[in-house]
């Protein structure tokens, strides 16, 4: 029961990960095929979640949309961690130096531009696409991981084992990789889970305003946008994509809480 958040969150997240993986090899209906004769049909035996205004099967679109959302969020978090973590380690290793100041002020500058605004600027130059959504969300994730890594690393640089490593002749870069990074991985794992859920929300928001994945690639956000004018007589078009976003984000947040409880030694001691 102590790990119920982790188990519930993991189960909810696994459902959509499995749906995304299955969609790579099979979906009930072709998401690019139009069936106007069966448009805006409610849930039935033939279409479990109904059809949209083009007659496309909503279950199939949610499965493929899960693949789009997970891929965008996963790569964006990877960009954030891949760039932000080294920057945070470097800033902590050179606390108070010009490098530290440049990194932190650069983070402040990026924080001043939300992912939506970054996506608008990128789209104005390169056009709307899933790749540009990944870049926008990834750029916004960089300062999140940089700040977290720096904060966690600063408290470790005064530890005895780090001082011993410095006395033995190890340089700042080697200490950061061998001693600091392994001890902040638990923080990064929890934050990565949270940013992953926020990445799914951001992708849905960008697709909703037309800045994410473009047709014919299904996207949960664009499914919501397409349903907004039909919600009074076809509520299932908005209900099921909305539930997909809600349950996926809820699952990832619960899993993040569970990982925090599992990995934080202070919480483990409190439970004991």
TrEMBL record:
The chain crosses the membrane at residues 6-29, 70-93, 113-140, 237-256. This is ABC transporter permease. PROSITE patterns: ABC_TM1 (PS50928). GO terms for biological process: transmembrane transport. It comes from the Bacteria. The keyword DNA damage does not apply. It is a multi-pass membrane protein. Residues 66-256 form the ABC transmembrane type-1 domain. InterPro entries: BP-dependent_transpt_permease, MetI-like, MetI-like_sf. GO terms for cellular component: plasma membrane. Keywords: Cell membrane, Membrane, Transmembrane, Transmembrane helix, Transport. It is found in: Cell membrane. Belongs to the binding-protein-dependent transport system permease family.
């Amino acid at each position: 029961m102590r790990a119920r958040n982790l188990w519930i969150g993991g189960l909810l997240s696994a459902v959509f990960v499995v749906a995304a993986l299955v969609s790579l090899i099979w979906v009930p209906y072709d998401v690019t095929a139009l069936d106007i004769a069966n448009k805006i049909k409610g849930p039935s035996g033939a279409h479990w979640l109904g059809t949209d205004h083009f007659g496309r099967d909503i279950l199939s679109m949610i499965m493929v949309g899960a693949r789009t959302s997970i891929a965008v969020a996963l790569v964006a978090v990877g960009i954030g961690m891949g760039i932000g973590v080294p920057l945070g380690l470097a800033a902590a290793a050179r606390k108070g130096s010009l490098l530290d100041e440049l990194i932190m002020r650069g983070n402040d500058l990026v924080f001043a531009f939300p992912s939506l605004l970054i996506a608008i600027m990128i789209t104005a130059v390169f056009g709307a696409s899933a790749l540009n959504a990944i870049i926008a969300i990834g750029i916004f994730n960089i300062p999140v991981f940089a700040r977290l890594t720096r904060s966690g690393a600063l408290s470790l640089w005064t530890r005895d084992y780090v001082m011993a490593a410095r006395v033995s002749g190890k340089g700042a870069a080697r200490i950061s990789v061998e001693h600091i990074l392994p001890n902040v991985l638990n923080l990064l794992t929890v934050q990565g889970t949270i940013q992953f859920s926020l990445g799914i929300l951001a992708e849905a928001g960008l697709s909703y305003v037309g800045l994410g994945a473009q047709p014919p690639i299904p996207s949960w956000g664009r499914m919501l946008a397409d349903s907004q004018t039909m919600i009074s007589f076809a509520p299932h078009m908005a209900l099921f994509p909305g539930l997909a976003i809600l349950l996926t984000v809820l699952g990832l947040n619960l899993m993040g809480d569970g990982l925090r409880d599992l990995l934080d030694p202070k919480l483990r001691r409190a439970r004991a």
